Amino acid sequence: MEVAFIRKYDRTKPKPNDDLVNGKIRFREVLVIDQNGDQLGTMSSRDAQNKANDANLDLVCVAPKAKPPVCRIMDYGKYRFEKQKKEREQRRNSKVVSLKETQLSPTIDVHDKNVKLKRTLKWLQDGDKVKVAVRFRGRQMAHIEIGQKILDDFVEECSEYCVIEKPAKMEGRTLIAILAPKKK
Prior knowledge:
It contains 4 helices and 8 strands; from the N terminus they run E-E-H-E-E-H-E-H-E-H-E-E. 32% of the residues lie in helices and 29% in strands. The strands form 2 sheets. Strands 2-1-4-3 form a 4-stranded mixed beta sheet. Strands 5-6-8-7 form a 4-stranded mixed beta sheet, with helices on one face. The chain has 2 domains: 22-93, Ubiquitin-like (UB roll); 99-181, Translation initiation factor 3 (IF-3), C-terminal domain (Translation Initiation Factor IF3, 2-Layer Sandwich).
């Protein structure tokens, strides 16, 4: 019976170990590769386990969906450590691009627009996408061209740092354009 411990402040359960190692390997026959990378051939999983025990190492199934499944004789602790190290490195190197939003109005003043422009340029330089939205309220819907002009001017001032991913388009009472940062 396997007991899952819950850590003191982190209430999420730790991920169960899904690797097929030693006694968890239940295949009738497996293709065995020794610690030097040489193929030992196809044999029963019990014989493969005995070979691993003789070498004081573990039998790890590296390709369970292959025909026959491929098992390798190796130090399992070292294998897990290397696997975790690679995952950490991949997470560190990946950049999550988020979508920020700047809301404008057809009656926006110059200073307010410049403040929003400065914030938008900072987001674009940080590598985030920006959704620029002009909201129309009440009778402003009769003069959509005013909001279109404000949005076009805003995008024109940002054009040095961005490319237009999605041009301006009306969606309900909102005029929306999406800007993506330029590749460096």
